[in-house]
Design brief:
By secondary structure, the protein is α/β, with parallel strands linked by helices. It has helices at about 145-155, 170-180, 205-210, 225-230, 245-255, 280-285, 295-300, 315-325, 335-345, 350-365, 385-390, 395-410, 415-420, 425-435; strands at about 5, 10-15, 20-35, 40-45, 50, 60, 70-75, 80-85, 90-95, 95-100, 100-105, 110, 115-125, 135, 140, 160-165, 190-195, 235, 260, 270, 275-280, 300-305, 335, 370. Helix content is about 30%, strand content about 25%.
């Protein structure tokens, strides 16, 4: 039988019960049992799929009695629901006309003169650690990274929506880029939006674009990130910093796969794969009513947790060698043994980003063929027992305020580098400085 397959927003879940780790790929098969396209099958691996006569639908039915946008099928908490889109001839499930109804395996869906049998399909893929020590530009030989690479190798070829979780500097953007470059969308755009770095009044325009005259300064029409990324991948970095009033608008795009520019009236279909990242605990943010639960579930089809550098110290020599070879300032042979011991035992609050900066700075400032201990500039020394004891009796707010003040001093008042060193977003640092009345200097 002829088949049509589209890879968009794959519904995947990871089952992690020991001893087997399994990737569960959920698909929908719609088999035409009556109508002009009798015998045709559609296999769709999406959380939401659209059915109708227009070509932008996921399931296109060549039947004049089927409306252009007839119905949608959506997975909701493990069950599938079909919803009629105010079609001309209605949507029927097992003989009954419905506006919305649950679907069971084998249900017959009638749209106009066409009938389709609904068949949910599950494919289990065993997850095994990768045998490679790199994926794209990410390197690592530790067990933690081998496990991450094993997941990335399985999910990159799908269109699964992915949420990358990890502290600042753990390489979330590198992971997103590597996923894109190993996907079926690799020839299309990869667009990055840092949700923590865009002014609140501009975020909607950055994401969805605007029409000429939509607001002061909009002297011409502009494509937003979703239009620019059409056919490719959009990476929403620091998604936890997205303003609450913008979250339902993003949710609508994830569900409908269409946008409307600021100041515009036209609905524009978009075909993008979405990867998001955060250093926040979004479950905790949901409990505090700072992040929408429905948006979280839309984004976290696949969760990838990146380890801190201090938890993957076996990778430090490999990373150092990688950064030395990639450096264009001057060529050196490596690091002295004593230097390597210092780097392995350092706590790395800034993770891989800090390690890269330390190596690049040491190469630029050093004079020998090897990086010596004197060439290292480490921003956060180990905490001594005395310093730990000094924290006793102080409130968490006092400790937090002190940490911000000291880190600002270390970075000479630079709030961008201070935020990175503390592992928080720039906007979070700004809010905390206001809270504790910490001045610019």
């Amino acid at each position: 039988m002829p088949s049509q397959r589209q890879d968009n927003d794959t519904t995947l879940k990871i089952i992690t019960k020991e001893p087997t780790r399994t990737l569960l790929l959920k698909k929908v098969k719609l088999a035409v049992t009556k109508g002009r396209e009798l015998g045709k099958e559609f296999v769709i691996d999406k959380g939401m799929l659209r059915i109708g006569g227009k070509k932008e639908n996921d399931v296109v039915i060549a039947d004049d009695t089927v409306s252009r946008h007839h119905a949608v099928i959506e997975e909701k908490k493990g069950q599938y629901v079909i919803r009629d889109l105010e079609s001309t001839n209605g949507t029927f499930v097992d003989g009954l006309r419905v506006s919305e109804a649950f679907l069971n395996e084998g249900s017959i869906i009638r749209l106009g003169n066409t009938e389709l049998r609904f068949i949910p399909v599950e494919e289990k893929i065993e997850l095994t650690p990768s045998k490679k020590d790199r994926f794209g530009d990410i390197v690592g030989k530790s067990k933690e990274m081998k496990d991450v690479f094993g997941i990335l190798e399985k999910v990159s070829k799908t269109d699964a929506t992915i949420l990358i979780i990890g502290e600042t500097g753990t390489g979330k953007e590198l992971v997103a880029k590597a996923i894109h470059e190993n996907s079926n969308r690799s020839k299309r755009p990869f667009v990055v939006i840092d949700c923590s770095a865009i002014a609140r009044n501009l975020i909607e325009s950055e994401l969805f674009g605007h029409e000429k005259g939509a607001f002061t300064g909009a002297v011409s029409a502009r494509h937003g990130a979703f239009e620019t990324a059409n056919g490719g991948t959009i990476f929403l970095d620091e998604i936890g910093e997205l303003e609450p009033d913008m979250q339902p608008r993003l949710l609508r795009v994830l569900e409908a796969r269409e946008i409307k520019r600021v100041g515009g009236t036209n609905i524009i279909p978009v075909d993008v794969r979405i990867i998001a990242a955060t250093n926040r605990d979004l479950s905790a943010e949901i409990k505090k009513n700072r992040f929408r639960e429905d948006l979280f579930y839309r984004l976290s089809v696949i969760n990838i947790n990146l380890p801190q550098l201090k938890d993957r110290k076996d990778d430090i020599p490999l990373l150092i060698d990688y950064f030395i070879k990639a450096n264009k300032t001057r060529k050196i042979k490596g690091v002295a043994k004593e230097t390597l011991n210092i780097l392995i035992n350092y706590i790395w609050p800034g993770n891989i980003r800090e390690l890269r900066n330390v190596i690049e700075r040491a190469i630029a400032l050093g004079t020998s063929d090897y990086i010596e201990p004197k060439d290292l500039i480490l921003t956060k020394p180990q905490v001594s027992e005395k310093e730990t004891a000094d924290l006793s009796g102080r409130t968490l707010e006092e400790i937090e305020k002190s940490a911000i003040i000291q880190t600002l001093k270390t970075h000479k008042g630079n709030k961008t580098t201070t935020a990175k060193a503390l592992g928080i977003a720039y906007s979070t640092l700004y809010e905390k400085m206001k809270k504790y009345s910490i001045g610019e200097n």
